[in-house]
Structure formats: structure tokens, C-alpha cells
Amino acid sequence: MTLAQLLVVQAHDSAIDRLRHQRTVLPEFQALADCDEERAHIETQRGEAAERRHALGREQKRHEDDVALIEERRNKENERLYSGTVTAHKDLQAIQAELDVLAERQEGIEDQVLELMEAIEPVDAELADFDAKLAEVAARRATVAQSLADSEATIDAQIEAETAARADAIVDVEAPLVAEYERCRADLGGVGIARLNQKTCEGCHLQLSAVDYDRVRKEPSDAVLHCPECERILVRD
Ligand SMILES: [Zn+2]
């Protein structure tokens, strides 16, 4: 009776093993890895765009600093022109000529700034596009993570139920027999006990020889026998 009871224990143990394995191969794990890979790919592309944007911004800043310096010089020259301290016609003409050169240079640089701003515009759009994609991947990942948590919780509940049922089933089995079962289970890929169905061991699916079968048949019904092929504990009908 306790041997048959051990078969019930084995069924629960096998179910728990299956559930534990199932928990490690949930499709969500692959989906999460895919999301992470996608995010890394987008981040790399975004990083490249951000570098281009940064370089353009630096150039724009450099030109704007140049413009500020030129404006400063123009203000000074203008002050000199109208201060009254310079009176010689020739000197005034020289100042005016300098002012014209500065104005022309400033205009040239400002044109470059405009060109840079035009070049920056599509890069900014690109960055915004990458940010939107990253947000989309993050949202998708959060959904998958939630689904993973749900799947894990479902399996954990099943494992808990199987574990409770196993505890109920094992309660009447003698301790030495449990130890023997555990030893066989550990050595034989999780299956320590099997039914002998007519002459076939349901653990290894091999048929006992006529001699072995005859020997097994003659043993008392409560004797603990092992399959001569796979070593599993045999449960006779
Ligand atoms: Zn066997």
C-alpha cells in the first residue's frame, strides 16, 4: 500500500519538476531579451546621432561666440566714430572701413550659423524619433515583464498545490522507503519508482526476462524490488 502511495508521490514530484522547468523556459524570457537587444540597438544609433548633434551644436556655439566678439568690436568702433575724439577725416574713414569689414565678416558667420541650424533640425528630429522608439520598447518591455510576473505567479501557485498534495501523499510512507525513493530519484533523472505493467517496467519501458519476472513474481507483495534494468523501485499490481 505504501509503495502504491509512493507512486502518487512520484506523480507529484514529476509534476513539480515539470513546473520548475516550465518556469525557466517561459516565452517571456526570450521576449524580454529581444526588447533589451532592440533597446541596445536603438541606443547605439541614438548615441551616434547625439554625437553628431553635439558636434553641430559646438560649431554653432563657436560661431555665435565669434559673432559676439565682432559685435563687441563694432560697438567699440562705433563709439570711437561718434565719440568726437577722432576728428581727422582719414582716421574716421579708416574706422568706417573697419566697420564695413566687420559687418561683412559678421554676416558671413551668421550665414554659417543659419546653415548649421538647418543641419541641426533633421538631427533633432532623428533624436526625437529614437526617443519615441525607446519609449515604445520600454512600454512593450513593461507589458512583457508584467506577463512574466503573472506566468510565474500562476506556476508558483501550481507548485505550491503540488507540494501540499505531495506532503499529504507521503505522510504514511515509511521513512527508510522514502529515503530509498529519494536516492533512486536523484540517481535516475527524477523518476525513482515505476509501475510494473505485466512484464514491462514503466520506468525504462523494458520487458523483464522470463527468469527475472518469475523471481519478482515469487517475492512477497510487500518486498521492495528494483527493476533489474534501470534500478527503479518496482510497484507490482
Ligand atoms: Zn526499469
List keywords for this structure.
4 strands; Helix Hairpins; binds zinc ion; four-stranded mixed beta sheet; rod-shaped; 237 residues
Q: Please write the CATH class name of the largest domain.
A: Mainly Alpha
Q: What ranges have pLDDT less than 50 throughout 5 or more consecutive residues?
A: none
Secondary-structure arrangement, i.e. CATH architecture of the largest domain: Orthogonal Bundle
Question: What structural category do the secondary elements indicate?
Answer: mainly alpha
Mean pLDDT: 96
Radius of gyration: 42 Å
Instruction: Give the number of helices.
Output: 5
Largest sheet: 4 strands, mixed
Give me the CATH fold name of the largest domain.
Answer: Helix Hairpins
Q: Strand percentage, roughly?
A: 5-15%
**Distinct small molecules:** zinc ion
Short synopsis of the structure:
With 237 residues, the protein is mainly alpha-helical. It is built from five helices and four strands; from the N terminus they run H-H-H-H-E-E-H-E-E.
How would you explain this protein's 3D organization?
The protein has 5 helices and 4 strands, in the order ααααββαββ. With 237 residues, the chain is mainly α. The protein has 2 domains: 25-154, Helix Hairpins; 175-236, no CATH class. It has a 4-stranded mixed beta sheet with strand order 2-1-4-3. A hairpin with a 6-residue loop joins strand 3 (225-226) and strand 4. Helix 1 (2-24) packs antiparallel against helix 3 (89-170) and helix 2 (27-83) packs antiparallel against helix 3. The structure holds zinc ion.
